[in-house]
Prior knowledge:
alpha/beta; globular; 6-stranded antiparallel β-sheet
Amino acid sequence: MATQLDPVDVVTVGAGWTGSIVAKELAEDGNQVVSLERGGERSPQDYLTMHNELRYALRYELMQDLSKGTVTFRNTPDEEALPMRRLGSFLLGKGVGGAGVHWNGQTWRFLPYDFQIRSKTIDRYGRDKIPEDMLLQDWGITYDELRPYYLEFEKLCGISGTAGNLDGEIRDTGNPFEGPRAEDYPTPPMKTTPPLERFMDASADLGYHPFMSPSANLSEAYTNPDGVSRGACQYCGYCERFGCEWGAKADPTVTALPVAKETGNFELRTQADVRRLLYDAREGRVRGVQYVDTVTGEEYVQPAETVALTAYVLHNVRLLLLSDIGEPYDPENPQDSGNVGKNYCYQNFGGSATGYWDDEQWNLYMGAGALGAAVDDFNGDNFDHTGLDFLHGGNIAITQTGRRPIVNNPVPPGVERNWGSEFKRASVNYFNSSLSISAQGAVLPYADNYLDLDPTYTDEHGDPLLRMTFNWKEQDRKLAEYAGEKCREIMEAMDPDRMSYSDEVIGEGGDYDIRPYQSTHNTGGAVMGPNPDVSVVNSYLQCWDAENLFIPGASAFAHNSGYNPTGTVGALAFRAADGMKQYLQRPRMLD
């Protein structure tokens, strides 16, 4: 029998970006907060010997053990889903800080268009522009409403960049297509290296609007509003799949969690795997959570006044389904079904180009996860889609993340095999003489791309795994084709001696393939919206079916934009924390 614990004000399920921000905000407000993290404790001291590509980048030391729990996958509803046995297309994290520890640090605000995508699309192109099976919907919140929360997250992290739209004033040095911001970035942009300069010069010559990408890798020493000080990035190149031993890359363990701990109102419990939210359907509330201590095997019930479900996209949706909260989505009847599991989306990196130079070299072993430059001319609705057979677009960027010795083996067209002496010579020759750019395409929701519980496979506790049904659509293929051509055009203007490019979605035969890594930008499944007919949570990330349950994170995205999601995830976490404070003062559904 599970041990009943003393009640607390707030429980967060997970201690990544969303859980740590909610914990900090609510603990600072005087509430007793417990964060339950299924992985172990960790901090920058644990990263001092982390420059080990084999151990962390290839053997996934910081990631989830798939032998204990994974997801099943299929392309279409009429296929049998099979378990993902090894990490591939996306990397499921585990441990304190979550994916916020091993991310790159690329931190964007979504466009104003994103939050009102359905109404703005219809206004400009008419209703017929939206395919019948595309479940495009507005988010129930506007960019202007989310603006202050974006700013809070950027100040927490010390995001480096230059504003392109300062309260309506368009500035050449930043992104002229971004929504207006009240203040410039907390710190200036990172260093502009020769490869980035080449990209920016070529893009400008073509008439586009290049700028330095916003970064959570600090360009200079910074002290945030909570008094947390961190040093500047050293450009060592070990960001993605690694923790930052220097603390220059913002992550929850060096920003929000230390502040939460200092309040004296916060407790972090590690190795605590939450199996259910305790739901009272008649009351429309959750009573707390049930979890298992993965070291002792003992089960506990932690009662709470409010619960923040902050366990990453896929885990959020799975726990809702396991706990019978809300009605599951039915792809056979999308307009009248429940909403839990619908609008699963991903990221489309099909458009890309790589150039090779015979007589030039750069120090590409140096870099940072968010060191880059971009153009936003082909993202969102920044360009006219009349006559185009797709919606939205993607950010096109070059990044200098730091090449590592094992997996970075760029070889030009004509080298047929990825092994043997010819491959080795070419790989060594072009290690510091090749550059790549890619488009980060938006993915929009379709009726038969969704998440539900698998009827066959279970985890180590005997609970059903989450089943993912997803495939690329013509929308994605046409977008990749268009973005690939733009990448080719920019790379050609960068004047390489030879080049290759892609204008096809990643996967054999135009189908999504879960095996090769693409991005950990999974979104949707517990989407936000203006009413319970079309969404799981309201604009405060408050669950329509359980008023004291808040679900911030990318699971709330109604679609995925042409950017990395973390900036918006952080903003939604601050928005949810605001809502939880209001709720604890006066319990009710928030407006």
